[in-house]
């Protein structure tokens, strides 16, 4: 592995561990020349999952893009980066387990909303406001009422 700092090709592995349910190997490495440490991740190459956008364009699914949206929604909320990463991994796993080569952006958005609902209601509303493109305050209030009803239904079932 080439050192990202000095370009040296001689690096040593200090630590390896499996992450994301064993589908990825995280390696902590050290450069033999500059002695700086860095982390690499090895993942198996899977067939690409394609996201079909509203306008018909197709893009390869990117967990990092999805996480970026989730991070914006979770900003300044009591949600750890680990929780966001685990949630993103769970969403990707669910989408891939459908065994379809293509998913719609609506399926991705709804999966994110479903997970955010259980994680943090404020993050849910933030994500929904962008994803569902609230045009006015009335649409925002409708979403809040749906959230309250959903929460009450879940609370009622738990009792």
TrEMBL record:
Please share the entry's free-text remark on the cofactor.
Binds 1 zinc ion.
Residue span(s) of domain ATP-cone: 49-139
Decide whether keyword Membrane is in the record. no
Keyword Metal-binding on entry: yes
List the unnamed ZnF regions, as residue ranges: 3-34
An example GO BP is: negative regulation of DNA-templated transcription
Q: Which InterPro entries match?
A: ATP-cone_dom, NrdR-like_N, RNR_NrdR-like
Keyword terms: ATP-binding, DNA-binding, Metal-binding, Nucleotide-binding, Repressor, Transcription, Transcription regulation, Zinc, Zinc-finger
A GO molecular function term, named singly, is: zinc ion binding
Necessary cofactors = Zn(2+)
Instruction: Report the protein's function.
Output: Negatively regulates transcription of bacterial ribonucleotide reductase nrd genes and operons by binding to NrdR-boxes.
Family stated for the protein in its record? Belongs to the NrdR family.
Question: Can you name this protein?
Answer: Transcriptional repressor NrdR
Species annotation:
Desulfosporosinus acidiphilus (strain DSM 22704 / JCM 16185 / SJ4)
């Amino acid at each position: 592995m080439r050192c990202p700092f000095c370009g040296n090709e001689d690096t040593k592995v200090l630590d390896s561990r499996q992450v994301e349910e064993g589908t990825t190997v995280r390696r902590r490495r050290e450069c033999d020349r500059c002695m700086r440490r860095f982390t690499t991740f090895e993942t198996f190459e899977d067939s690409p999952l394609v996201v079909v956008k509203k306008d018909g364009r197709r893009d390869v699914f990117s967990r990092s893009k999805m996480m970026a949206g989730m991070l914006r929604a979770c900003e300044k909320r009591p949600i750890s980066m680990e929780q966001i990463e685990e949630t993103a991994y769970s969403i990707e796993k669910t989408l891939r387990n459908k065994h379809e080569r293509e998913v719609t952006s609506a399926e991705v958005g709804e999966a994110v909303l479903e997970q955010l609902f259980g994680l943090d209601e404020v993050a849910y509303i933030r994500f929904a406001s962008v994803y569902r493109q609230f045009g006015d305050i009335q649409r925002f209030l409708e979403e809040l009422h749906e959230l309250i009803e959903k929460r009450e239904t879940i609370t009622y079932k738990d009792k």
